[in-house]
Give the backbone structure.
Amino acid sequence: AVVSSLCSGFSNLYSSYKKHYYSKKGNHFWPCLVQSGLVPPHFGPENDQDCAGLETSIGFTDIVSRCTRTQSEITNEEFDEGARRLRAKLIEYNPMVVVFNGK
């Protein structure tokens, strides 16, 4: 079972290119997640898929899966459709905690 789900608004170009969440150098996401104790000390962007197998069972998803430079490039219709898909995922996986991260 997914204990927590981390949701971002959209995938930026760099993370999409690297195929890992929060992979841009200087992003504080992974150091903060490590400091929280939810993931092992050596975890970074390349371990995003490994998080589901941890005791904390963290899943990642985007509300809008299309990658863009900025959130302003995403239409309201894309957000509405993404919200419907996210709701379905949350019902399916039923995480104990849902965290939304983004600007």
User: Anything to note?
Assistant: The chain has a mean pLDDT of 88. The helical segments are 13-18, 29-36, 76-93. The longest strand covers residues 58-68. DSSP finds three helices and three strands in the chain.
